[in-house]
Amino acid sequence: MRVYLGLAAKGRDIPPQALATAREAIESAFPVPAEVIRADEWHGGGVSLFGWSNEPDDSRLPRLLHPDGGRIVGVNGHLADPADVSRLPDDSIGGAFSAWIARDGELTASTAINRVCPVFYAETADLHIVGSRALLVHLLAQRADRIDFDVLALQTMVRQGFFLSDETPYKGVSALRPSTTIAIRGGSRTISETPLPVAGPAPDSPRLKRAAIGELAEALLATVEPLRSAPEPVNLALTGGRDTRILAALLHAAKVPFRVTTNGLDTHPDVILARRIAAALKVEHTVIAPPQTAAKDAVLVEHPLERALGDAAHLRGHDVGLRVDRGLPAVLGQAHHVGAERRDAARGQPQPASDRPR
């Protein structure tokens, strides 16, 4: 995983405090252990570009901060062809990525048509800020060490599990639209968007249908071919669903080494179908069963309070972030205490009288 942050001064220079904040804030915005984070940074005239990764080295191309003919390029995600880094930004490039380009006096960031790898942006009186993590952008834009949530925007996350617009959880931070580039030059920001392509007419003959399917198949294979150079086999979470079956077929057809993992009980359709697929493709298959009672007659489920708090903490991985206030530690402790006793009860161990169901 990679994280990028670009800063562009509205005046002549970036305030030193902003650079220090960027280096300190990454541990709050990058949901991996701090000891595995690698960092690189580039500084030019009024522009800085930071890159962080939990990848062990720069063997995956392009590099974290990639020198390219007088500019520095960062790629969050994957290019279908790593050599295309020299063509960025270009809407015709295949892959799932966002691109970050810095040179003296100029900073740009762009999204691909799928916007799988987002770009977030904000500004202050002194700075334009763009980054791949909304929380990181927000922390750089804040004058005080606090998080200001956009409560109205958060309601879509609560109801849908994702945002339906360009809003983010944080006040003052917006998401860039698909196929869009944000550019800061001379302290001024411009945003340009490439219209989505118009669908052509449906093929009306067997020959044209076969040609259309063949073109799609070739494009799909091209997206997974870079994984051949991965240092270890790809781990595919395989279920009985169509999406993961297609992914397994693509990896197999592209001769990408991979193994598969499925979560569930042996009798679950996902596990049954995944075993059949793994056997047909002759790949290693691991099944991870959910926690069960000692008698294996029931699946253990967390207490709703503990589960809700766990889901809330997990939002940090979705770039929401949490700050613990005075009341939360006690609630977390209570949830853990109650949840543990519910699990003990499921295992046949006694509960305190105060917690027994009435």
Number of strands: 15
Order of SSEs: EHEEEEEEEEHHEEEHEHEHEHH
Radius of gyration (Å): 24 Å
Q: What is the 3D form?
A: globular
Q: How much strand content do the residues show?
A: 15-25%
Uncertain regions spanning at least 5 consecutive residues? 320-358
Number of helices: 8
Percent range of helical residues = 25-40%
Question: What key attributes describe this structure?
Answer:
6-stranded antiparallel sheet, alpha+beta, 30% helix, globular, 358 residues, disordered C terminus
Explain what you see.
The structure is a single chain. By secondary structure, the chain is of the alpha+beta class. Helix content is 30%, strand content 23%. The protein contains 8 helices and 15 strands. It has helices spanning 16-29, 134-141, 151-160, 206-224, 242-253, 269-281, 304-314, 328-346; strands at residues 2-9, 38-44, 47-53, 66-67, 72-79, 95-103, 106-111, 120-123, 127-131, 174-175, 180-185, 188-193, 234-237, 258-263, 285-288. The strands form 3 sheets. Strands 2-3-1-9-8-10 form a 6-stranded antiparallel sheet, with helices on one face. Strand 6 and strand 7 form a beta hairpin. Helix 1 (16-29) packs antiparallel against helix 2. The longest helix has 19 residues, at 206-224. It is globular and about 65 Å long. The model is unreliable at 320-358 (pLDDT under 50).
Q: What's the gist of this structure?
A:
This protein is an alpha+beta fold and 358 residues long.
Topology:
Layout lengths: L1 E8 L6 H14 L8 E7 L2 E7 L12 E2 L4 E8 L15 E9 L2 E6 L8 E4 L3 E5 L2 H8 L9 H10 L13 E2 L4 E6 L2 E6 L12 H19 L9 E4 L4 H12 L4 E6 L5 H13 L3 E4 L15 H11 L13 H19 L12
Parallel strand pairs: 13-14, 14-15
Antiparallel strand pairs: 1-3, 1-9, 2-3, 4-5, 5-6, 6-7, 7-11, 8-9, 8-10, 11-12
Helix pairs in contact: 1-2, 7-8
